[in-house]
Specification:
The chain is built from eleven helices and 15 strands. With about 375 residues, it is an alpha/beta fold.
Length: about 375
């Protein structure tokens, strides 16, 4: 079994991927930043427990190393890196800043573009011949693109062609990979993920990104202001491209298994879910009636609606999307189609997520009451 090296290994998708790799007996080296309170090993163990829903994970084939994304050689001793790359490996670059606003622009580009560049330098310096470098990007590097977003490189563009600096940084990062492929022969690949959600089979959802971030905000307001009717700035007939975590993990594993794969693949859902179905599920699961409206002025909003609108600074950019993605390259490596999220499975994910929020709230109340 080949060795799989993963940076940003304690993230949502990466930790689920590592769980799958370990069950398939792959050797995994996880690169994790230390935090003020926890060591890289502690952070990795917590992420694996979270992603497995506290089921047992056999970590015999797992090594966890501390690293620093932006420093030369990741601040890892040379002999350790030589040992890490001593045989043919697949290297997955997951590390990223998920911030998106203007005030965080410098940090976003330093992490998402500069960090990627440094990661490629380490890989190129130490990796053996035939090792492969995978950059985990986003399907939303398409920006404000109209038409079918193909599995090819697109040129860098100004910020007005994107919804936020996160999207723009990911486009720039893709072109760092392209430059290294063209000029230095990097065996590089770009995997673009759309909005990753919970497990399509079980409903277990451990991410609070995208529609779940919106749900978390509504959950808090619903229990402080029960049985209210609120309007939200959402186009009901537009769609969200939601790809279940179990599907993503199976696609990633397939990329490891296939020897020759395309340079760019869009890991996306072919069937999208309408906003109205997501809104209806949240309304049915919480003591609140949410009414999606494509357009209404701020001066028409109630106080509660203004609070909701203020909390949608990121998600609001995606309330009027019907994005179309090419999957010709993805289809080449798949033996069967992945499981698609639909109205029922998304409802199950939202139900799990809301139940989990309620459990966390009860625990906080019990602790504060001690």
């Amino acid at each position: 079994m080949k060795t799989i090296i993963i940076n940003g290994a304690n993230g949502y998708v990466a930790s689920n991927f590592i769980n799958k790799l370990l069950t398939q007996k792959y050797k995994v080296i996880a690169l994790v930043r230390p935090s003020i309170k926890f060591s890289p090993t502690e952070r990795m163990k917590a992420a694996l427990a979270e992603s497995s829903d506290d089921e047992y994970v056999n970590s015999t084939n797992l090594k966890v190393y501390s690293y620093s994304l932006l420093h030369k050689d990741f601040l890892i001793p040379q002999e350790q890196l030589e040992d890490t790359f001593s045989e043919e490996v697949d290297y997955f670059h997951f590390a990223a800043s998920l911030k998106f606003d203007f005030k965080s622009k410098e940090e976003i580009f330093e992490t998402n573009v500069g960090g990627l560049g440094n990661s490629i330098q380490v890989f190129s310096k130490f990796a053996k011949f035939n090792s492969r470098f995978f950059f985990i990007g986003t399907a939303y590097s398409c920006g404000r693109f109209s038409g079918r977003f193909e599995e090819k490189f697109y040129p860098n563009d100004d910020i007005d062609k994107f919804r936020n600096y996160y999207e723009q940084s990911k486009r720039f990062a893709e072109n760092v990979v392209k430059k290294q492929i063209d000029n230095h022969g990097l065996n590089g690949h770009v995997i673009r993920l759309s909005q990753v959600v919970g497990n399509n089979k079980t409903g277990v959802t451990k991410t609070d990104y995208g529609i779940f971030d919106f749900t978390k905000r509504i959950h808090s307001l619903a229990f402080r202001n029960p049985n209210q009717t609120v309007r939200v700035h959402v186009n009901p007939v537009s769609t969200q491209n939601l790809i279940p975590i179990d599907t993503v993990v199976n696609y990633l594993l397939r990329a490891v298994e296939v020897k020759h794969i395309p340079v760019i693949m869009n890991f996306i859902a072919k069937k999208q879910v309408k906003n109205i179905h997501i809104i209806k599920s949240i309304s049915n699961l919480l003591p609140i009636n949410i009414v999606p409206e494509k357009k209404f002025a701020r001066h028409e909003m109630t106080a509660l609606e203004r609070i909701i609108s203020a909390g949608m600074s990121f998600t609001e950019s995606y309330i009027d999307t019907n994005l179309q993605f090419d999957t010709s390259n993805l289809d080449k490596i798949l033996m069967v189609d992945g499981h698609e999220a639909n109205e029922n499975t998304v409802h199950k994910m939202l139900e799990y997520f809301i139940d989990n929020l309620a459990t966390q709230k009860r625990k906080r109340v019990m602790v504060s009451g001690l």
